[in-house]
Task: inverse folding
DNA sequence: AAAGAAAGTGTAAGCGATTACATTAATAAG
DNA sequence: CTTATTAATGTAATCGCTTACACTTTCTTT
């Protein structure tokens, strides 16, 4: 089903002017006599004409699309992030080409190459890979795009791209310190995998908080999960079986936190009477269900918004030689709802 | 930051052939001597050239982007739908321009006009408005796109676009009948707004099931919400206050269902011992938390996939005169987890 | 009323590809 | 060794816009 759309020359013909004049009316670029302008607008209206962004992009040699590459749209975090990005693109006449990589490196690289052909003006990306295996190839593909890139939430080693990240260390630090102030001394952490930066950082925050408060780090209380629900569930069960169990648990992300809550609930362990708990990332449902779990909360939509604003600035920059990387590190908020308490 | 990308003529120059030959290599369109081909590929490789889809679209007079317009990416339903759409676009070299209308009619119409300028090849859309106020204008804007349109989940009055919908009537019918078989006679419904087709259909299914089973419809048991959590919460509280309360509640969507569960939980009403419950749409997190609530479940990702496949068929169609509208109506599944039971 | 300035409009090249048609090179047939 | 075929490549128009430059009107000004 192909119907040739109306073109600028149809309008020119109908309103008896040249295409140049029509173009001027379209872009308000030069003085056009009021009377002529009306004629042209009338023709545009009658024929329902909409100029082709394709042709416009080609002749101006610049597009108005930006690429957004995320690992999983179904993750509420990225849903929010995309909302944040949209809020900026909407106001700036930019379009969003969305790619969902499914946490698959190959797919991701393929998408980036597709986006290059689409001549996107800029890219916001949450990379899948943080391992050395792909690093070199990955970097070269990104560099090769030759457009501004803004990393979101996940960093890429050895890169000097702009980025918006979250201070996981301080977020975790605050949570642990809060436990300590409550009187907890035996504090466990369900950490993420150390192959990911957020995983590493959250563990670091944990250790730092203990050390700074003169509490010795006890390796028995450190558990390594993989950010997925099941690992949170299983590790929590292990914790409950310990001889000298902790009185508080910090869980490094929302999915593992759910797993942990599930395990505690099933074992009839009350929160916080029997076990105090703080997790990383909000879980909307828990709030709805009045389950008061304290969390380290990230400003998700804001992260998308800030990323897009950085990108926008780059797009408006004149000089190419601007080498200073902009890396924004947002702070999470510790939201206390009572689950951190130590009841005697 | 604008760096002129490599063009086809750079490749032509470097490999000492004409642009036509390079194009042939790029598209495998005509016989090219093996030796020449290699030369060209080598140049492409060395210069890291990627052909411009913009220029290609212009000269072929056809793009490879499709528009996807949804009311809210954060709604898990649409997240899943987008995944379904992606699964098809990925395999067919199509790009997805994503627009989030925030349930705002004005915004939606603006997006459609933007997409027209982008010369999208087709559109998948879940319209915000189902009211007569916008209908005429809305239809004309969609028609004016002159590309195949596939409606998703929500219909547009008087339109003859293709579409993928869900049989809300039968889904609700089954749920209510299930209640009846369990022995329930006093069954309440928290309906959606009647201004929306899903709202109307679900209420219709409810009434039909009662009637077909010889149970009189009692208007006191019909409550009208707005699909949002709060209304589910408040209406449930009303239900609990009734003199002659129902023994079972059917809730017309996931958000109101959460509201209902919240109200029941707060009032210490046990499910299903004190009140049986079936909702429309899965709530993933409830399952994780071992809260066994029976639901009418929709094949969400499949809806996106089917919609995209219909669109794909349209894109591949030769003749323009194909007037037969394709409307697929998928069936929901009643998933029983025990919350529908009537305990004595 | 003539000359110069300003305003309005048109002509045509160019953006980076595709492709019909023309041309040349290579191979087969006589 | 021509000539007819076929294979390989090149030339140039085209897609729908933008825009530099040229040209024509329409004021101003004296």
Result:
């Amino acid at each position: 089903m192909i119907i040739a759309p109306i073109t600028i020359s149809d309008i020119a013909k109908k309103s008896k002017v040249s295409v140049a004049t029509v173009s001027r009316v379209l872009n308000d670029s030069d003085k056009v006599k009021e009377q002529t302008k009306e004629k042209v607008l009338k023709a545009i209206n009658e024929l329902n004409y909409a100029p082709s962004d394709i042709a416009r992009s080609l002749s101006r040699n610049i597009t108005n699309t930006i690429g957004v590459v995320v690992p999983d749209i179904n993750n509420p975090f990225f849903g929010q992030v995309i909302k944040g990005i949209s809020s900026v693109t909407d106001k700036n006449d930019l379009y969003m080409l969305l790619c969902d990589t499914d946490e698959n490196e190959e797919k991701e690289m393929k998408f980036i190459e597709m986006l290059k052909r689409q001549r996107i003006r800029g890219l916001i990306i949450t990379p899948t890979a943080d391992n050395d295996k792909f690093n070199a190839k990955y970097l070269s593909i990104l560099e090769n795009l030759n457009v501004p890139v803004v990393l979101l939430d996940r960093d890429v080693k050895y890169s000097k791209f702009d980025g918006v990240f979250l201070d996981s260390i301080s977020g975790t630090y605050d949570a642990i310190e809060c436990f300590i102030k409550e009187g907890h001394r035996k504090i466990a952490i369900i950490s993420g995998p150390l192959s990911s930066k957020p995983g590493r950082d959250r563990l670091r925050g944990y250790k730092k908080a203990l050390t700074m408060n003169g509490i010795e780090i006890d390796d028995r209380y450190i558990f390594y999960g993989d950010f997925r629900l099941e690992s949170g569930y299983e590790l929590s069960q292990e914790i409950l079986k310990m001889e000298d169990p902790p009185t508080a648990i910090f869980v490094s992300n929302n999915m593992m936190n759910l797993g942990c809550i599930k395990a505690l609930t099933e074992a009839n362990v009350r929160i916080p009477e029997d076990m105090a708990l703080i997790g990383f990332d909000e879980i909307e449902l828990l709030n709805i269900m009045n389950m008061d779990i304290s969390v380290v909360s990230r400003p998700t939509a804001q992260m998308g918004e800030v990323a897009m604003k950085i990108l926008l600035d780059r797009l408006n920059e004149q000089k190419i030689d601007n080498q200073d990387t902009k890396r924004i590190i947002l702070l999470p908020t510790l939201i206390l709802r009572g689950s951190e308490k130590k009841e005697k």
In short: Residues 17-21, 24, 30-33, 36, 55, 57-61 of chain A lie near DNA strand C (CB under 10 Å from a C1').
